[in-house]
Amino acid sequence: MLRDIEQLSTGQCAEALGISEQAVKVRLHRARLRMREELARVLRRNWFERLLSSKGKKPWLAAKLF
């Protein structure tokens, strides 16, 4: 959050957390991977609901839901 939301540099994050810059980079990488996995899981779960809600609409418009 410090890096992406507060827009601190890697060095500033490391200093604030009391860890090395390399450790900050590793933690950011792992956190972003986890976020990607969670978002993919949620989106996969809801794809069928979005498809059903587009029933009766033009197929080229339904494609925009994905």
Number of helices: 3
Give the averaged pLDDT, no decimals: 80
| Strand fraction | under 5%
Shape: elongated
Instruction: Give the total of domains.
Output: 1
Kindly state the number of beta strands: 0
- SSE pattern, N- to C-terminal: HHH
- Share of helix, binned: 55-70%
Compute the separation of the termini in Å. 28 Å
Question: What is Rg?
Answer: 19 Å
Give the low-confidence spans.
none
Largest sheet: none
In terms of structural class, how would the helical and strand content be classed?
mainly alpha
Q: What order do the helices and strands come in, and which of them pair?
A:
Blueprint: H1 10-17, H2 21-53, H3 59-62
Helix pairs in contact: 1-2
Describe this structure in words.
The chain is mostly helical and 66 residues long. The chain has one domain (10-65). Helix content is 68%, strand content 0%. The protein has 3 helices and no strands. It starts with 9 loop residues before the first helix and ends with a helix. The model has no long low-confidence stretch (mean pLDDT 80).
In short:
The protein is an all-alpha fold.
Key terms:
66 residues; mainly alpha; 3 helices; elongated
